[in-house]
Amino acid sequence: MVPPLSRGTCPEAGLDAEEIGLIVPGLAAALEPAAGPHDAADEPAHPWCAGAVVLAGRGHVVALHDAVGWAVRYRAYDEHTGRGVELPPQQRVPMRPGTVFDLASLTKLFTAVAAVQQIEAGTLDPDRPLTAYVPGLVPGLTLRHLLTHTSGLRPELPLYDLPGPAERAARLAAEQPRTPPGAERCYSDLNLLLTQTVLERVTGRPLDRLVADGITTPLGMTATRFAPPPSWLPRTAATEDQRRPWAKLDRGMVRGTVHDENAYAMGGVAGHAGLFSTAWDLALFARALLDGDLPLRPDLGFETDQAWFMGELAGRGAFGHTGFTGTSLVIDPTTRSYLIVLANTVHPVRHRQGSVPRATAATRLARATRRTGG
Asked: What is the pLDDT, as a whole number, of residue 32?
């Protein structure tokens, strides 16, 4: 039996070694602040990330799986200087290929796949009103609206300010679209929170069980879960020194618990954020989508052909997603190649990080397939 993934060489994967060899140095360069003039009135220059893990593969062969920088570099963020307070070198935690990351919005892909599984099972109809499944939701919305971000709902709500799950559920259900459903696209976390509501109602199971039973356990994704246990902490990358006014809660340096404030208020299990995983596990996920082991409808829940993070992979049907903490997954069905970049770009604080290092890495993978006739 052919294993789902194996570590191999670029020639074995059908990838150009020279192009693949440029990916890690490019990410290593992002560990330093950007060169050039900087506007003193703007926020101080920050490195793009403290560290990163990258994995590139094609088919069943992983040709690159490496790490640069630090999983934990700072003990705090100094709002007066606008810079991180670094830990002594001996207390820092190096980034390793198996480091666990808060996936942030990559969670949305798993929620979307769980929804498509229910569509294919006949439990859900993507074009039936949500009120048919959960009475009390806004009339006129469908699952397709949610998964294509055409519901008209605003990007987010401060659900973390509400006292409990009943109040959060009521506030979410009462939210009215700002534009007519289907009229325009507006990316919104609320779409995936409502998807979670529908999934849990029609299946009678919580989202974390749906993801575990339907996706991660069958694929052998042993390092992917919501609300990771304390035993995972030593191999988990830190995120942000979360304090007001730049954050929405006062939690200090976040590590091992979800960064997103709404997901945190929901106990770490949310349709839009909350999953933790590794690059290798995400490669298993990518391989399963390519091989048909998971149902795939790229128009439902995935971003397609987005050059701002997919680089030159965009334009030929590539699909994937990014996460606010610095994570990304890109899958190119034309060449059956995939790229995972997991970085802690919000460590020690969120900033205008951009996506150039991710896009550059994706362009290297695109050229690596073209050079070998892909």
From this structure: 83
